[in-house]
Amino acid sequence: MLVRVAAGIILRGDAVFIALRKSDQHQGGLWEFPGGKCEPLESVEVALARELKEECGIAITEYSLFKIIAHDYGDKQVELYFYRVVGFDGDPLGKEGQEVRWVTVEDLMSYDFPAANKVIVEALIAQA
Ligand SMILES: Nc1nc2c([nH]c(=O)n2[C@@H]2O[C@H](COP(=O)(O)OP(=O)(O)OP(=O)(O)O)[C@@H](O)[C@H]2O)c(=O)[nH]1
Ligand SMILES: [Mg+2]
Description:
Blueprint: E1 2-12, E2 15-20, E3 31-32, E4 35-37, H1 44-56, E5 59-72, E6 77-89, E7 100-104, H2 118-127
The structure holds 8-OXO-guanosine-5'-triphosphate and magnesium ion.
Magnesium ion (MG) binds next to strand 4 and helix 1.
């Protein structure tokens, strides 16, 4: 099963917004950049806007593709489209009851993310 996923690295100054995946979700208990699966025939950018509205309550206005990462979790193959999101209306929050946090890019090192995120976190820190 190959799934396309859109995820937003929401940035405000030097802070980045992260969320904790619920324990019953795939890769549960790990931190993530909010987002989710693209629906059939849905473009990645439309999925990104929809997911960030649903999960964080923001309307994104300025964003760009950062990196595409393909990863095989064994039970699931994902193609993750990570976007840097630098413009948005509204204040991001955990709309689905998930724990959320604003952290500095350097702080990302102290959080556990799914394996596919490793290169993303490293690239963000390298650029900070
Ligand atoms: N949102 C998000 N998903 C990630 C990240 N890294 C990563 O490997 N994933 C994987 O991408 C897949 C899809 O994400 P998701 O579970 O958020 O999808 P969704 O919001 O549509 O969830 P749902 O099916 O529970 O409604 C999951 O298998 C998840 O483990 C990340 O940083 N953010
Ligand atoms: Mg999601």
